[in-house]
Amino acid sequence: MASFIRKILKALGLGSLFGRKDNVKLGLYGPPNGGKSTLANRISKDWLGEEMSTVSHIAHETREIVMKEQINITNEKGQGLTFSLVDTPGISTRIDYEDFLKRGMKKSQAKARAKEATKGVIDSIKWLDDMDAVVVVLDSTKDPYSQVNITIIGNLQARKIPVLIVANKVDLKRSNMDLIKAAFPQYEVVGISAKYGKNMKDFYEILIDFAG
Amino acid sequence: MVTFQFVPYHDMQHLSSSKRIQKLISIVKNEKIVVMEGRLRKEEEAGLIEETMNSVSRAFPGIEIGVIYPESGKLQGFEKLKNNVVNLLLGDRQGFTVVGPASIVKKIVRNPGKLELFTEEAKGSKTTKRRRKK
Hints:
heterodimer, A: Rossmann fold, 38% helix
């Protein structure tokens, strides 16, 4: 249905989300450990040949906004899209110092990490207004009905920022992309494995399709 | 012991966004679970997360939040129209918002029709489960 509406909008010359701006900012948003930085690295490596972010199993690895400019993606038909990719810290309602201690960090490290993580969440929210379009990266093995997910998507909707939802980690057995589709029926959802590059071609096609 | 504090809509109705957020944070920092009539605006929810992050300390690791409200998507025809009129008249009064301190509320799970609150009163104690059915 969403793609049908998009085709009609395109036919009317209204389908381009990014077309009217030269410097398009495409943000990667979502809760911690959804795979935003893994996806950022995948995109950056696929099109620029280099990674852009540090990845870890410990939540809040990305504590600062990381941006890679002038990424050009193209498809087989020769259509393309140029954008700046913005990898953001995961948005969360809690930062527990104890969680970092449990992961084997020293007290001073855990304290510093918690402080940086809180600042990272604040920065992510502040940067929402600067985005031209956002890819919300959700872990498809986890419950999508969390209030953080609903708040992120609701805020993007309120700001009229176009949203594409990525159901990441589809390579895992517990992955349930249908649950994400059911939770956010008004958005297009694409299932990928950023870690293994599964279905990235479809992901790029959809991005280009949005760009008209 | 877990304490729930009810915040009726009329207590929040005339407050500015920042005062609404401050009110919720101050109750939660006193280790109480807020049950608020209605919902915050989307921007206020983001503001609540920002303010929470500004308040995070070792004693206050943050909040857990859950919102439950009537789903208009499943309604059809006259019922949908009626629901839209009610929304227009009552604004953000429909539904409930539950906000608790992360030190007490381990997580809030929202399935479309119900909220499940998993609390942890003290280290080493068993996790208890409370349900609020729509």
